[in-house]
Amino acid sequence: MSIFGDSTFFIWAALLLIPAVILGIMEKPIKYYGFLLSLFFIGAACINSPVSLVYMGLYCIWQYGLARVMLKVTEKNGRDRRTFWAAISFSILPLAVFKLSELIGHSLFGFIGISYLTFKSVQIIIEIYDEIIKECRPFEFAYFLLFFPSVSAGPIDRSRRFEEDIRRIPPKKEYLDMVGTGLFKICLGLVYKFVIAALLYQGITYIAYVDIVSRFWVQLGYMYLYGGYLFFDFAGYSLMAIGVSYMLGVKTPENFNKPFISTDIREFWDRWHITLSHWFRDFVFSRFMMASIRGKWFSSKLTGAACGFMINMTLMGIWHGLDMSYIIYGVYHGILLSITEMYQKKSKFYKKNKKKKWYIWISRVITFNLVMFGFYIFSGRLMEII
Amino acid sequence: MKQKVIDTVLNLLEEICGDDVIRSDMDINLLEEDLIDSLDYTELLVGIEDALGVVMAPSELKREEMDTPNKIIEQVMKRI
């Protein structure tokens, strides 16, 4: 079984969500049942690799232990930088080991959703350091990490928001509304992923077999098809994950919001893989910028911003995998964001025209094509040609 | 104290947004009006901490909870 990936999953999900809906209608907590469901689906998805389940269990205990230590130390000594950085390193360690071992070709410590789980664990550590999170209970912690709709590929929820949702029991009418919205999202997601994305994928494989790959127009066609495929595949998956969460009483945040109407790259990142980019914004970019303003690291605001964008996006690229294409993809977006920032802050032409209709439309076309070229890098094709 | 918070926040916002409209309309939506971006937001948080000693982490509040001058003042007041 693959979560949101095959018919076995959907049959089981349709059956096993019924008790959840009954609990919801009866205004009883769904979380304990939801936790059992998560264990069941993760178990079924990893049935061929029991060792990865052991890794996953160890991972959760490791992260929980780190969070507890972090809480204790912060409670006793206040915000301690050294403990904080140590905890962050230990929290990222399993992912780093996995990614590096993959690079050598001998995969070690891999399990379903390890990259996404790392975001959730690191978020908790950072917010304990910020003294926003003051307690950490084993059930809530495990359910947050293992919540099956988003375990394998997001959306990346935040622990405080998630816990609020599972603690609260919505009245019957509100819960039924959530089920309705959830079902609609699941259906839309199915169409996105299994109809539109599947069709676009056919086009991509067709092009892959065309001999004349070096021809410009073939590459161009590939670029748009691949970009479209990436969107419908991932947005469709996200919609289904969000839809199932709603049925379990959790309003998992949206991941996509019409990314292709963006008028600039910054807006694009507010609309594309939103939970990822906002995670990076809140936990990397903002913190780097605040430290740089306090420490007066840069003489000009723009240089600081450019540096922040480059670090932020490169890191995001690396997170996708230690493949050259992903890293270049990150650097590419870092450069685009920096240029955008400089242009928008300095250009009189921009300030004069930014609200005009023709300017908005031209910006949309340019942004769309820049984004598509980014996906082309991401696909690995550019590296093949070079 | 409240007056000090209001003055500090408004001064900061005026400098960051480069627009004094925030003084005349304290319920203006800073995000929708394109007056503040992620970068400006970090500057605002550092400014508030330096001037008033109020620490706010960038992930602590949703942007919708900090999108007008009045809301920002209210959040700062809560932490004093």
List keywords for this structure.
heterodimer, A: 386 residues, mainly alpha, B: mainly alpha, 56% helix
Task: Please render the helix and strand layout as text.
The complex is a heterodimer of chains A (386) and B (80).
Chain A: H1 7-25, H2 31-45, H3 50-77, H4 81-104, H5 114-129, H6 138-146, H7 148-151, H8 159-167, H9 172-209, H10 216-247, H11 265-271, H12 274-295, H13 301-320, H14 324-346, H15 348-353, H16 357-378, H17 381-385
Chain B: H1 2-17, H2 21-24, H3 38-52, H4 69-78
Report on this structure.
The complex is a heterodimer of chains A (386) and B (80). With 386 residues, chain A is mostly helical. Chain A has three domains: 7-167, no CATH class; 172-247; 259-385, no CATH class. Chain A is built from 17 helices and no strands. In chain A, helix 4 (81-104) packs antiparallel against helix 5 (114-129), helix 10 crosses helix 16 (357-378) and helix 14 (324-346) packs antiparallel against helix 16. The two termini of chain A are 38 Å apart. With 80 residues, chain B is mainly alpha-helical. Chain B has a single domain (2-78), classed as ACP-like (Non-ribosomal Peptide Synthetase Peptidyl Carrier Protein, Chain A, Orthogonal Bundle), CATH 1.10.1200. Chain B has four helices and no strands. In chain B, helix 1 (2-17) packs antiparallel against helix 3 and helix 1 (2-17) packs across helix 4. Chains A and B meet through helix 5, helix 12 and helix 13 of A and helix 3 of B.
